[in-house]
Amino acid sequence: MKKLIIVESPSKIKTISKLLDKDYVVMSTMGHIKDLPSKKIGVSIDKDGVSIQYVVLDGKDQTIASICKQASTCDIIYLAPDPDREGEIIGWHIAQEIAKVAKKNAKIYRISFNEITEPAIINAISHPGEINMKLVEAQQARRVLDRWVGYEVSPILWRKIAKGLSAGRVQSVALRMICDREKSIRSFVPEEYWSITGSFAHNKALIAAPLTNIGKEKAEIKDEKTATKVIDGIKKEKYAIDSVTDKVRTRNPLPPFMTSTLQQAAYNLLGFSVKKTMQIAQHLYEGLPLKDPTSPVALITYMRTDSLRIADTALQQVRSFITKNYKSDYLPAKANVFEKKTKTKTQDAHEAIRPIDITMAPEKIRQYLPPDEAKLYDLIWKRFVACQMKAAEYAQRQVVIKGGIYTFKVTGSTLIFDGFLHVYQEEEEGEKDDKVVLPADIKAKKPLDLKKMDPKQHFTQPQPRFTEASLVKELEKEGIGRPSTYATILNTIRARAYTTLEKKKFVPTELGMVVTDMLVKNLPDIMDPKFTALMEEELDKVAHGELERDVLLKNFHKTFEKDLAAFSGKDANKKAVETDITCPQCKDHKLAIRFGKSGEFLGCTGYPECHFTSNFVRDEKGVIELKEVEAPKLLDKDCPVCGKKLRQMHGKYGDFIACSGYPECKYIERKKLPFPCPQCGNDIIERAWRGGKFWGCAGYPQCKLAIFDAVEETPCPQCKWPFLTKKTNKEGESTLICVNKECNYKSQ
Asked: Residue ranges per domain, the chain?
C-alpha cells in the first residue's frame, strides 16, 4: 500500500524518510502554494459573507503537479505541514489540488507532530485527523485583515507623503511603539537627585551603607544644597548597628523557552537577531546530520509556541538525567511547573521548546554542528535542564545602622547553593546579585565610627530605545502578534525606511514619525495597541470555534471603511512637516521637512519663489540642526574621457566616482567584475535601478546579461562559465547556480 506524506519544508524530507519504511514517500510543498493575488485585493464582502480569491504562487505550478502526480498513485495521503495556522492552510490548499486527482477510495488525513522523532511520527500516523477548518479560517481572517490594511492604506500614503510607502496592521502598531518611545525620550526632562553613602569602621573593616531614611521618611535629596545640609546633620550624630537580619533568599529556575523568550535570550546572550534565531531554530527542529552525514537528526521540538507545557515523557527523561549526572540535592521532589505571565492566552497546542533527547548533551554533538546552531542548541538544552532543578539559595544579611534621625541600610548576599545556576545563568530583571561583602562577626547594638561620606549627584534617565529583544518583550506583554509573527514584524520594520538601528537600538526616521502620526490621527483603531491586541484575541476565538470568521471581518471592515473614506478625502497635497526654523535664504518663510527619492530634507515653504533646501540632523532632544552637504572630493586620478580630475560623489544609490567636468563630460567610473562577459566579451559593470544594484553587461542593449544575485568567482564545474551566483533562501541555506541558460548546474 503506497503512502504519501506531505510536509512544508524540504529540509524535513531526509529526516522523516529515514524514520519510516519504504511504503512511505515524503514530499514538500516548499512553503505556501497559494495566496491572495498580488495585483488586486482578492477579497470581497456581500450579504452572503466574505469571499476570498486564491491564486497559485509563482513557481509553484511544478511543485503542485509533482505532488499531485505522486498522490494519484497512493492509497493514503498524510498532510503534515507545520502544526500551526499557516501549516493548516498549506495542508488545506494542497488537499484541494490532490482531491482532483486522487484515487476514488484514497484516504486524505491531516497529521501533526511537535518533534521529528520516530515515536512522534508513528503516533501521528496512528491517530490521523482532518484539516481543522477553524484554524484555516483563523489564518484566512488574519491574512484578510492584513491585506485590507496594506492594500487600502498604502496608496493613500503614496499620495500624501511619498511613493512606495506601506502600512501594516501589526507592523504599524509596533512602529508606533518605537515612535512613542522616541517622543518620550526627546521630551524627557532629567531630574537631579543625590545619594549619600556612609562608610563605618567595624574592627579593621569598613561597612559602606547608603542613607535610606531621615526620620520616618524616605531619604529624597533633590539638590546639592540639601545634600550639604543633610551631611552636616549626619556628622553630628553617633552611630550603632540597630539590627542584623539573616535569612535565606531563593531564586527560582527560569521556565523552559517559548518563542519570545528564546528570541530575547538569544539576542541578549548570543547577539543573534530575531530572524537569525528563528532560522537556526528551524534547522535544529528539522534535523541536522551528526555522525552520519547522510542521516539528519532532529534536535529540538517545534520552535513556534507560546506554551510552557512539558510532556510527561520529557519530564521523566530530564529528571532521570539530573539524577544520574548531578548530585542528588539538585533534583526537586516534584517536577517544576510553570505558568505564563502575560496578557495573551496560551494556545497550548505545542510544548515549550526543548531538546528532543536530553542525553544528547551539547558537548557530545557540538563538533558536528555549525557554530551558530551549536550555540543555540546549547542555550536551549541548558535552559531546559535547569528548569527542572532546584532553586538557588543565597544567605542574605541586612544591616541597619542608625544615628539620630538618620538610617543607613546595606544588604549582602552569598550564594550557598547554586541549584539551577549550576547549569544555566541568565540575569533576570531585578535579580542582579548584590556583591556587598559584610563582616562575619557583625552584631547588633555595636557602636560604629563614621569614617567618611560619599555624596553623589545623579540624574533620572529616560526609558531606553527598543532593541529587538525588548520590542518582542513589549509586543508579547501587550498581546500584539503571536509566536509565528514576531520575526516577520521585526523584519518588516527593519526593511522599511521607517527606522534605523543605532547601537542595535531602533530609532525612527523622520518618515517613520510622520507616517505614524498621520495613521494615529486618521486611523485610530488600527493604530491602537489595545485594539490590535483585541483583534489577536478575536482571531484566537475563530481558531477555537467561538467566533465566526465573517463576523469578525465584517465588524472590522465596517469601522475601517468609514475611517478610510475620511482619511482618503483629507489633505490632497503632499505632507510637509513645518518647523519653526526661518529660511536662511529668503528670511520670509519657515522651513519644512519634505520627503524625496533620496530621503528627507528641509525645504523652504516659499517654494517655488525660494528654492532653498538643506540636509539636517536632530540632536538628542530632537532639535533640528541644518547640515551642510560635503563638497565633492577631487581625486588624484584623471578622467579617461576628457582628462579632467575625477571626484568622489554621493547620490541616490550611494557613493560613486565621476568626472569633475560634468555636465560637459558625463563619465562615471563603474565597478566591474574581474572577468569579461562570457556572452560578448565586454566588461560586466555594476548598474543601479530602483530595486537596488546589479551586475550588467556594458554591451547593453545588444547583450542583455544581468546578474541580480551575489557573484561567486568560481568557474562552473559543468560548463566552465567564469562565475556562479549564490542564492540564499529564508532558512539561510545557500545554493550556487550557473546563469548560463544552456547549463542547469546547481549545487546541492
From this structure: 3-131, 139-188+466-569, 192-252+392-459, 259-387, 577-627
**C-alpha cell of 219?**
531619604
- Which residues are designated catalytic? 302
Contact 716, 733 (CB under 8 A): no
* Mean pLDDT score of the chain: 91
Order of all β-strands in the sheet with 668-669: 633-638, 645-651, 654-659, 668-669
Q: CA 214 to CA 257: how far, in whole Å?
A: 45
C-alpha span between 373 and 382 (Å, rounded): 14
- 632: DSSP letter: P
pLDDT tens digits for 721-732? 899 998 877 556
Q: Any idea which of 69-73, 270-274, 493-497, 650-654 has the lowest mean pLDDT?
A: 650-654
DSSP reduced 3-state for 299: coil
Our measurement of the distance from residue 130's CA atom to the centroid of its chain's CA atoms, rounded to an integer in Å, reads 33
Q: What is the pLDDT of residues 164-204, one digit of tens each?
A: 888 999 999 999 999 999 999 999 999 999 999 999 998 88
| Domains 3-131 and 259-387 fall in the same CATH topology | no
What Cα–Cα distance (Å) separates residue 713 from each residue in 67, 563, 674, 723?
36, 54, 9, 5
Q: What is the DSSP string of 697-742?
A: ETTTTT---EE-SEEE----TTT--S-EEEEE-TTS-EEEE---TT
This prediction has a pTM of 0.81
- Secondary structure E strands in 496-589: 499-502, 505-508, 577-582
Q: Residue 433: what pLDDT?
A: 47
Q: Up-side HSE of residue 174: CA atoms within 13 Å toward CB?
A: 34
Mean pLDDT, residues 643-664? 84
Q: Which residues contact 36 (CB under 8 A, 6 or more apart)?
A: 42, 43, 52, 53, 54, 55, 143, 147
Closest of 216, 228, 184 to residue 460, by C-alpha: 184
CB 340 within 8 A of CB 313: no
Task: Retrieve residue 44's grid coordinates.
Answer: 470581497
The CATH homologous superfamily to which domain 259-387 belongs is: Topoisomerase I, domain 4 (1.10.290.10)
17: enclosing H helix or E strand: helix 12-17
Strand order in the sheet with 577-582: 577-582, 590-596, 599-604, 613-618, 624-627
**CATH top class, domain 192-252+392-459:** mainly beta
**Per-residue pLDDT at 617:** 87
pLDDT digits (tens, 9 = 90+) for 214-235: 999 999 999 999 999 999 999 9
Q: Report whether 695 contacts 673 (CB < 8 A).
A: yes
- Cβ atoms 471, 490 nearer than 8 A: yes
Stretch among 362-366, 408-412, 619-623 having the lowest mean pLDDT: 619-623
User: Looking at 19-23, 311-315, 338-342, which range is the least confident one?
Assistant: 338-342
Ramachandran bin of 614, using left for φ above 0, alpha for ψ from -120 to 50, beta for the remaining angles: beta
pLDDT(344) > 60: no
> Which cell goes with 334?
516534584
Tell me the three cell numbers of residue 377.
542548541
- Class of 139-188+466-569 per CATH? mainly alpha
Contacts of 68 (CB under 8 A, 6+ apart): 97, 98, 100, 101
DSSP 213-236: EETTEE--B-SHHHHHHHHHHHHT
pLDDT tens for each residue of 153-172: 999 998 888 888 889 999 99
Q: For the domain made up of 3-131, give the CATH fold.
A: Rossmann fold (3.40.50)
Instruction: Tell me how crowded residue 45 is: count the other CB atoms within 10 A of its CB.
Output: 15
Q: What is the pLDDT of residue 232?
A: 96
